[in-house]
Amino acid sequence: MVFTEIKERNKKKYYYRVKSIRKGEKVDKKRIYLGANLSKQELEKAEKEADKKILSDKISMKKTKTITFGIDKEKDFSEWFTQIIQKAELADMRYNVKGFLVFQPWSVLAMEKMYKFLEQKLQEKNHNPHWFPTLIPEKNFKIEGEHVKGFTPEVFWVTSGGNMKFEEKLALRPTSETAFYQMFSLWIRSWKDLPYKTYQRANVFRYETKATRPFLRSREFHWIETHCAHKTLKDAEAQVNEDMKTTEEVLGDVFLLPFIFFERPSWDKFPGAYRTFAADVLNPDGRLVQQPSTHILNQDFAEGFNVKFKDEDEKEKVAWITCYGPAISRIFASVIIVHGDGKGLKFPWKIAPKQVVIVPINLDKQLTEKAGELKKILEKNNISVTIDLDDEKRPGEKFYFWEMKGVPLRIELGKKELQNKELTIYRRDTDEKKKIKEKKLLKYAERTSQEYDKNLKKHADSLFKNKIQDIEKKEDLKAVIEEGKIARVNFCSIEKEGEKCAEIVEKEINAEVRGTLANKKEKPTGKCVICGKPAKEVVYVGRSY
Ligand SMILES: [Zn+2]
Question: pTM for this one?
Answer without folding.
Answer: 0.86
